[in-house]
Amino acid sequence: MSITFKYKGETFTAQNRSQSEMVIEKALVAEMLSADSFSFLLRGATGNYEQNYRKGDVLEIWNGASQIAEFFIERIKADDANFQFTCTSAVGMLATVHQDGGMLSGETVGDVLPGLMGNYSYVVDPEVAAIQLRGWLPESDCRSALRQICLPYGISIMRTSAGLPHFKFNFPTVAKEISRRDVYSGLKRGDLTPVTQVTVLEHSFYASNAVSEEVLFDNTSTAIAASSDRISFDMPIQATTLRATGSLTIDDSGVNFAVVSGVGVLYGKPYVHTVRAQSASTGVVGEPNEMRFEDAYLVNSLNSYNTLQRLASYYSTAEELDVSIRADGTVRAGDLVRVYDKYRQEWVNGYLQKAVVRFSASTTRADCSVIANWRPDYIGNNYDSYVVIKASDLVGGVWTVPAELQGKRVQVVLFGGLRGGHSGGKGQTPAPVYPGDGTWHYEGNAGGVGGDGGEGAMVYAAEIDLTAASYAVTIGSGGPGGISADGTDVAGDLGGDTTFGSMSSANGAEVSNYINLVDGTLYIEAGDKGQDGGKGGEGGTVNIEMVSYITPDNVWDPYLEGTWDVGEDGEDIGTHSGGAKGTTGWVGQSTGGQGVMSHGKTVGVTAPGGGGGASISANGSAGGNSTSSYNAGVWSYFSGPGGNGAAATTVPAKASFGKCGRGGYGGGGGGLPGKCETQSIEWPRYSYNVNPGTPGQGGLGSQGGTGSDGFVVVYYKA
Amino acid sequence: MNKGLTLDGVFYKLHVSSLKRHFQVLDGENAERADAGNIIRDVIGTYYNYSMTIENAVDTRSDYDAFYEEISAPVESHILTVPYAQGTMTFEAYVTAGEDNLELMDEDGTDWNGLTVQFIACEPKRVPA
Fold this sequence. Notes:
Chain A is mainly beta.
């Protein structure tokens, strides 16, 4: 065997190198992510290697005509004519490459890897590439991000025969026997630290508007302006909720960061983060020693069981054997080898976890740590399929376990009835406004705002073995929508409890936006917003202008001329019409029709009212005409009243499966009364007693819609 | 053909009374006894070493002294040309010690004789394929 190192077109042989050491390591249960390393001394060479290298330059190791490893230069140090080369693997290089992270919602490993591996070549098996990732990927270096991805699923980063990183699930199953003639003397028991218990935290993240804003950055006290400063968050933030005050601008942002400029405060709402601890005893007797995995944020309810069992299995039975072997050039971490245990006098199989490989003149020695008495298992997701149980799936309140699920370990998730929608808003009733110039008028004729959709349901999850042939199940009814008697916003109620055997959704927590982790289906979707009511019509308008006449004897003789115009019909909603506008106004002294001008030294004008807005349930009322009344010798003139807005009495239909109730419909806005005005230019001044008509009343909104009935999701491994 | 030998490119007129060659197949650091009792070799290559004895004579006295000075110089190695098979072989070798005897000292000069030196090859002449 002839081992050579190739670097920038040069080949280093055994004649001009020494102290060659390659350390390869594979964390067998992905509990960590090791970086392989390689170093050697180039002796008696000429050249400026220490000046001309660039970090990341490729160095290949060849066994004869075959490449067996690829490393990247970290540094080259010179000592006279000797040069110390220190190299690392692609994974090692990634420790200094930054990635922004984010909230993963179904992106696959195949989608994510290119961004993490950059220009480094790698191979990924199809079944690994297809894994959907759900959860938080913190901002970090790319190597740490790879660990986040590998741990929950037990993805191994092995090496191809050419030494490239190879993302795969399957370990070798055929052991490579190491002849006793190739084992250097000595085989020792390793020193795996005994672990008595393994704990894995299962994480879930979801977005909710109900979360309070957090202050993420504040430079107002110093007033030192940020200039494209990068702010890293210590928790995932809903990117759409980011807002800045003052002169602070958000130049760029993500779930884990924002780039800001200026002075102000940066706010945002974090994702709701819930954690469930799962523990398993390893059966090892001794002083308590718990191994905790807390910061693997892609461990979720779909993979936590496998993650826990994989780790617990490893720490409960695995034995470490230290053995030095004469290796050929293809020794790789993760290889299954068969070595002779001379103490027990038996052959044992084990996975090569670590090897310190020393290339010498013609023989390669590998000091290996071999993990025996352990079988790789519990890889990928614990569950890859699911069934949904609705009321229609029950017979007499009983759910019969399908044959393919019987006896299986499953996760049962109970969803109580989903919350109903908010009540619909009341249409506005116009109210007087005093601008301060001695006049006043009515404003406020908007239709009632449709109620917000309901949000949330009680959710309880547990893992059980489906040992029974059937289970008693009750499905909670959807929660009713809110009802408001005075127009205030009333939220809908949660629905009834869903039960499965002795378990109940009532024992869980209220959750919004639950994502089915197998296919990304959104459950507990917020209800739709209710439709707004129609706007009330504007009241008719009036106008008084002064005009001048020049008499035949050349005297200026001013007069006032008044006119009025009609207002608006109320706004239509669907098939329902807004109230018709009033049609008749009044102009003193003579009463005329629309646009008829009257002139005199004293003029009064009133206009007809606007129609009331419609609702989804009814038409708006018509606006009125101008009126007058005589009482105790005094004439009073009134503009036309506004029409009443229609009340919304229709309750939105019950929400579809998995959705919260729709918000109630808004009532129609009240129509505005017609305008009125009087002016005089003679002395003593005389004015008409003109008054606005009454405004239309806003219509009440309707009750919010009922949320979807509850249901049960049973996740299982097909 | 002149009698003598060439060291560092200089021909010395000397009488070589004895020339022995030795070979060694040396192992590297990965050579060690295996679990089964066999030796695991880590062959670096074959080294050809030479040892010689040089006799002095009245007509070679100056070359003898010059050779002595050269062979005992504090340098890492020398280039030596020696017989090999049916021809010669030139190779880099190092010397760490040598010895000779004082035979005569009179008004004509001093006769040193019987210089023995061992040349050890700096690198293997042949390496594994």
